[in-house]
Amino acid sequence: MDQFAKKWEHKSDDKWDISLKSFVLPAVFLAIFWGLAILLSIQSGAMFYLFNFGYIGTSVAIGIFLIQTLPKKHKAWGRRTSQLLVGCYMLFFLGFFGRENMQIEGFFMLLLSGVFAAATMHYLIAKIAGPLIFGRAWCSYTCWTAMVLDLLPFKRPQQKRIKYLGALRYLYFILSLSLVLVIWYVLKDPVKPQSTTELCWLIGGNLLFYSAGILLAYRLQDNRAFCKYLCPIPVFQKITSRFALFKIKIDPVKCVDCGKCEQVCPMDIKLLEYKNNQQRVLSTECIWCSTCIYECPKAAASVTVGLDMGRKERLYFR
Ligand code: SF4
Ligand code: SF4
Ligand code: SF4
Asked: In this structure, are residues 38 and 61 in contact, taking their beta carbons and an 8 Å threshold?
């Protein structure tokens, strides 16, 4: 559905670019999130929703505004700003202060208990339904694990992916689910929402994620190694992000096949194969970091809106 494609145009390389247009996308995000915030808080009578969705929407809108206006070489700071604002809020305020286990085990536990809490909403919106529109944008703009991993020094993978190691994420997913099922049905000792036990699960889960993520990053010289091989969250995201309305596209007319976009892609995606097949970047491994857009010397890569569905993953392996 290329005729519906809209370009997220490049801005100047070394100057701020503040115009009326740079407020449009942030305003759209503000309207969506604040609309949701007001609706949910009126329906439930809980001010939490107003604060929660208002804060997240405002943080993402600030990040998008920075992306729209910053000089090209600094645009990644827009994404990093949103990631820090939302990541810290979720981890420290909702997690540690609110004692809500936002790790995958917390979500499974809430599903079994039938309690509709922040973690349930978070998974449904950010990790299951959200990717239908924005793909895996969660992984670049808001994840509190990647918020730390992105600070490590291996932004560009030194080597390509290790084949089949990605199967570990499915193993992790099954182990997490099995653990929760055993606690629920065999031990009959469910973790009570907002209890000290839940807080311990949250701390333990995050310590595991951070230590595994940092170890893998240094071992494989790749900040996003944890995202490629071990994190169980993409098991959800990869199903719905196939249909994402927003995806990266390379304009075959502008592209000169220099290969820079593939060299800088942190997820080892063969962008040019998608271009040669006249497709948008359909890979469910795309985390929407926009590095390919910022680094393309010909402004050939952009975010487009369209209807299509990813099937074959085109990735570089060692
Ligand atoms: S793959 Fe997992 S750790 Fe990586 S950014 Fe996505 S949710 Fe976060
Ligand atoms: S960096 Fe731009 S010009 Fe070079 S191959 Fe990629 S899309 Fe084409
Ligand atoms: S294709 Fe572009 S946006 Fe997607 S992960 Fe690679 S560099 Fe990031």
From this structure: no
Instruction: In whole angstroms, give the CA distance from residue 67 to residue 159.
Output: 28
Q: Residue whose CA is closest, atom 3 of ligand 2?
A: 255
Cα distance between residue 44 and residue 56, in whole Å? 19
For 264, the domain range is 243-305
Q: How far is the CA of 143 from the centre of ligand 1 (A)?
A: 6
Say which ligand is closest to the CA of 155.
Answer: 3
Give pLDDT tens digits for 136-160: 999 999 999 999 999 999 999 988 9
Total structural domains within the chain: 2
Mutate which of 156, 251, 258 to test ligand 2's pocket (most atoms within 8 Å of Cβ)? 258
pLDDT digits (tens, 9 = 90+) for 170-219: 999 999 999 999 999 998 877 777 788 888 989 999 999 999 999 999 99
- As given in the structure block, the two tokens for residue 115 are 């309690």
For residues 105 and 249, state if they share a domain.
no
Residues 99 and 140 in one domain: yes
* CA 196 and chain centroid, separation: 29
Distance 227 CA to ligand 1 centre (A): 5
> How much distance in Å is there from the Cα of 164 to the middle of ligand 1?
18
Both 92 and 144 in a single domain? yes
